[in-house]
Structures
1.
Amino acid sequence: MSGAGAPDFFYREAQRLGYVARSAFKLLQIQKQYKLITSGSSVLDLGCAPGAWLQVACQSLGPLNKGGVVVGIDVKKVKVPQLHCDSRAQTVCADVMNLPRNRIRALSPQFLESLPRIRLYQSN
Ligand SMILES: C[S@@+](CC[C@H](N)C(=O)[O-])C[C@H]1O[C@@H](n2cnc3c(N)ncnc32)[C@H](O)[C@@H]1O
């Protein structure tokens, strides 16, 4: 919302397009200009609430069958937004400045992305 009380353009656009915050447009612009996230990328979002960047990151991964993973961490509990996100997005409630060493590896996108393959391997 703008300081004057009336919702600003980006606030209204976020509502209209199903983004949980207008910050989505910052990452959309970065993505349009630099294409940081490509098909199948691994993305770690430090301080992810309320999840707008999770939405843009997840939709930037391309088709589900191309893989990729988006992990969001925040001290606040964050529910993965339903719109623009799919099973490749997940969140963790933690203070990124005080993560115990043994949790860091378990939170890495590479490790999380490998889990389905590990499960698949174990089930065969
Ligand atoms: C500006 S918001 C992030 C907005 C988010 N990128 C989005 O677009 O939806 C910054 C977030 O960082 C989180 N944060 C700040 N320090 C943190 C820490 N040490 N560990 C985890 N999260 C932290 C805050 O709780 C806050 O939700």
2.
Amino acid sequence: MARPTRPAADGHEEPIEASVRVVARQFDWDFWYPGPDGLFDTLDDVMLTGELHVPVDEPVVLQIETQDVLHSFFVPSLRVKQDIVSGMRQLVWFRATKPGDYEIACTELCGWGHYKMKAVMTVHSAEDYAAWRARAEAAAGATTVGAAEP
Ligand SMILES: [Cu+2]
């Protein structure tokens, strides 16, 4: 399946960029969101361990990498599965069609804690997704401000 595209300003179709970065590590999943500025690697990025949030009925592109050994990203309900190889960044895409919570599991035997390397993907309606984003970004901002205070 080809990577999803969207119309660019000049009318041609351009590939959709990753909206979430997924970092696998023994034995958890970290999900990085770009924050209010829409850019990764800036101070307002939001990181949640074990929680992937996506909007329903929209193409979602994930950039996946590992911070240590081999892992494999698997969402059984979506039949989406991607091995994660050290030193590589891979893209995975899908369109979730039903709101709800879905299990994410690692399917590469990655060490003693492999059995517990799970996360939850929440598929939100458009309205819920916007509300969740606002809450998550506010919480992340509050944390940053708190940490900067003497
Ligand atoms: Cu594993």
